[in-house]
Amino acid sequence: MMFAIFLTALVAVSFAEEPKHTPPKVQLYSREPGRFGEENILICRVSGFHPPDISIQLMMDGLELPNANQTDLAFKQNWHFHLTKNVAFKPMREEKYSCKVTHGTTVKDYAWEPNM
Q1: Distances (CA, A) of 73 to 8, 25, 29, 90
Q2: pTM higher than 0.70, yes or no?
């Protein structure tokens, strides 16, 4: 009988402590309207995710852009995190820009649309 109570309690605790996985919401945009050949800032905002195991890469044609700046990891009361990364860039017509987000073992690319 004691073993059954112990086993029930162990199962309840293991389910209660299982971390909740929430995928990130990703927004990729530029500071100014996208115009080819003009200086701008590419911004990737990642929010509402848990756990905080995440990385953000700003990419041009599949290669990471150097000199990007990233905010400190922050969270709200519900333990959902947010993070922003940005880099100066000068988009050209033939180039493809994206934000590559790795959350845990999931990797996704989000393409920048200049809305020309």
Answers
A1: 37, 15, 20, 27
A2: yes
